[in-house]
Write a structure and sequence with these properties.
The chain has two domains: 81 residues, no CATH class; 176 residues, DD-peptidase/beta-lactamase superfamily (Beta-lactamase). A hairpin with a 5-residue loop joins β3 and β4. The protein has a five-stranded antiparallel sheet with strand order 7-8-9-10-11, sandwiched between helices. A three-stranded mixed sheet has the order 4-3-12, with no helix packed on it. The protein is built from eight helices and twelve strands. The chain is of the alpha+beta class. 29% of the residues are buried.
Length: 291
């Protein structure tokens, strides 16, 4: 259902104009959003008494749409729904499916939805950026049972493991996907819709997001597509995205480059982390003679 508000500010639900497709979900054009970037959804969740996504409760997925499918792009819980579809179609829980088809074949032994005591001892601490620029360490999250595994977030991993995944994509699938599937993922699937720009209504969690100001950023099947050259070296047609704790990656199929940088810093899109990310990219292209 799609929501709006009446004159008194109460949520008003109506049927969407068209059904949601898998392509809508993969391209973040289904109408699902995240509360931190959509104040209307935040109001709606509060008014309806819905649990937040971080609760791990299955009811948190039952959020209303904030626009009709295909109308625009907005980052949201779409990939979490894709994870549910994978479970229904495969008959496996998401962690078992990923272990059998992705992390296992690629040797990603440090990637999963849970951590062992040995992995917990190696886990990096999240730091919160304060208004004065300082970083304050935060306590580890509680490892509590969840009613569902989120396709859009929640994996623990390492830079080495994730680089193995990126290398598989750079190599045309690395045995986990067909080359034509990887190529399809990197095409523009949202036409002329603008992607990649988000305005925060939760500053402690995320800053405003616009990684390529002035560029016509688009979206493929799973990640952001930059049709123009990047300012730090990446080629037109490169793909990229990020994690909420300021983890970033990109794939450059033209120059056959892949990069990943992981931090544990909040809020998202931290300017200081992004400056390091840009410098890392520039130095990598320069060192390999691909600038």
């Amino acid at each position: 259902m799609l929501t709006g508000f009446d004159a008194a500010g109460r949520p008003q639900l109506r049927a969407a104009k068209r059904p949601i497709t898998l392509k809508h979900l993969l391209t973040h054009t289904a109408g699902f959003c995240y509360e931190q970037w959509n104040p209307d959804l935040e109001r709606c969740v509060a008014a309806l008494g819905m649990p937040q996504m971080g609760s791990g409760r299955l009811a948190a997925l039952r959020m209303p749409l904030m626009f009709d499918p295909g109308e625009r792009w907005e980052y949201g819980i779409n990939i979490d729904w894709v994870g549910r579809l994978v479970e229904e179609l495969s008959g496996q829980k998401l962690d078992a499916y990923l272990a059998e088809h992705i992390t296992g074949p690629l040797g990603m032994t440090d990637t999963g939805f849970t951590v062992s005591s040995e992995q917990r001892a190696r886990q990096a601490t999240v730091h919160q950026r304060e208004p004065n620029g300082s970083l304050v360490p935060q306590p580890f999250e509680e490892l509590t049972p969840r009613e569902f595994l989120a396709g859009g977030g929640g994996l623990y991993s390492t830079a080495g493991d994730y680089l193995a995944f990126l290398q598989a994509l750079l190599q045309g699938g690395g045995g986990i996907l067909k080359p034509e599937t990887v190529a399809l993922m990197g095409e523009n699937h949202i036409g002329g819709l603008q992607a990649g720009i988000l305005k925060t209504n939760n500053p402690p969690l995320t800053n405003d997001v616009d990684f390529f100001p002035g560029q016509q950023v688009r979206w493929g099947l799973g990640y952001m597509l930059t049709p123009e050259p990047g300012p730090d070296g990446r080629s037109p047609g490169s793909v990229a995205w990020a994690g909420i704790f300021n983890s970033y990656y990109w794939l450059d199929p033209v120059k056959r480059m892949a990069g990943v940088m992981m931090t544990q810093v909040l809020p998202f899109a931290d300017p200081q982390v992004l400056a390091v990310y840009g410098a890392f990219e520039r130095e990598l292209y320069s060192a390999l003679g691909n600038s």
